[in-house]
Design a protein that fits this description.
GTP-binding; FtsZ/CetZ; alpha/beta; 60s Ribosomal Protein L30, Chain: A; globular; Rossmann fold; 10-stranded mixed β-sheet; binds guanosine-5'-triphosphate; about 45% helix; binds magnesium ion; Tubulin_FtsZ_GTPase
Length: about 325
């Protein structure tokens, strides 16, 4: 059995910032990190395994200046190098901020290219703050839909929810850190789940079954110290505004992965499954896995990935 190759791609300014945050933390060996942008400075600010500078002829090594079409043209002009950089991937996890030129133009073109290369894609995409205006919001919405049309599972993370989650007085830097941290914990748990053999194993094909559902996806992860607190932790995870809890009930597929100590009981396993199932009345595929905690790690962990959120629900999401 070969280890799946996971490429995490940071696209545009937001994607590069998220990649840089990940760089400060360890991830399993089968993960490689690639930064992709028209903007040389943004690329050079990231420590990663590979960088692809998109068409210098079109963008002169600078940002797209909010021009998604220019950024998309730069992707097309750089296609051979992108194919080369991505061809070893069994899955691409894309991090980006929609509404900007690179974020929207590049992410959508990459979703198209990946579909052509038959590589599944999971996208974590921020949506612009309200104050950034209607134009960016519309562009972001279009990009969300386009990526889904190319078959990508897209987790939308509206930046406005950061205020709801953290409080209005939160410093901007803190809010952006929290958004990076939210991604980091999900990606750490997801990549560990795929790398480790669990007691009730959740493998790459389980993961693919969930992300191949058409529609929007949701993701969240949480860590706690106490086994008794797992139901409370699941509840807290479900209520995180960044997880878009109001959309969860539409999900058609979901996976819940638990990392717990040797004392974790069958009853606790079942209770968590029932607790989640109650939130997912439309789910047709619910996968639940368990990995026993490594000795050196005392944390209990929960990871939730849900997908197949319908077009109806998409419309609501775009209005929040
Ligand atoms: N949460 C979060 N959102 C960000 C961050 N940086 C940018 N964004 C969001 O992402 C959107 C796109 O911004 P950038 O990533 O800077 O733009 P870009 O993709 O580089 O596009 P161009 O510079 O126009 O080519 C913005 O409108 C913000 O809403 C960040 O560090 N954290
Ligand atoms: Mg930029």
């Amino acid at each position: 059995m070969s280890v799946a190759s996971i490429i995490i791609v940071g696209v545009g300014g937001r994607g590069c910032a998220a990649l840089q945050h990940l760089q400060q933390h360890s991830l399993p060996d089968n993960i490689s990190r690639i930064a992709i942008s028209t903007d040389k400075r943004a690329l050079n600010s990231v420590l990663c395994d590979n960088r692809v500078l998109l068409s210098e002829t079109i963008a002169n090594g600078r940002s797209s200046g909010g021009n998604a079409e220019l950024a998309a043209a730069a992707v097309r002009d750089t296609e051979p190098a992108l194919r080369q950089a991505l061809c070893s991937a069994d899955v691409i996890i894309m991090l980006t901020g929609l509404g900007g030129g690179n974020g929207s133009g590049v992410a959508t073109e990459l979703a198209k290219l990946a579909a052509d290369m038959a590589i599944p894609v999971l996208v974590f995409a921020t949506l612009p703050f309200n104050f950034e205006g209607q134009r960016r919001a519309l562009l972001a919405q279009q990009s969300l839909l386009t990526m889904q049309q190319y078959g990508a599972a897209v987790v939308a993370l509206p930046n406005d929810q950061l205020q709801r989650a953290l409080g209005a007085a939160t410093r901007l830097e803190q809010a952006l850190d929290a958004s990076n941290q939210f991604l980091l914990v999900i990606l750490q748990q997801l990549t560990a789940m795929l790398a480790d053999t669990g007691l009730i194993n959740m493998d790459f094909n389980d993961f693919l079954s969930v992300i191949k559902q058409p529609g929007l996806a949701l993701a969240g992860a949480i860590e706690t110290e106490q086994e008794d607190d797992l139901p409370a932790a699941l509840q807290k995870l479900l209520l995180n505004p960044l997880l878009q809890p109001q959309q969860l009930s539409q999900a058609k597929a979901a996976l819940l992965h638990i990392v717990a100590g040797k004392g974790f009981s069958l009853q606790q396993f079942e209770a968590l499954g029932l607790q989640l199932a109650a939130e997912l009345p439309n789910v047709a595929l619910l996968l639940q896995g368990l990995t026993l905690q490594p000795e050196a790690d005392t944390k209990l962990k929960l990871l939730l990935l849900a997908s197949g959120i319908s077009a109806d629900c998409r419309a609501k999401l775009l209005c929040v």
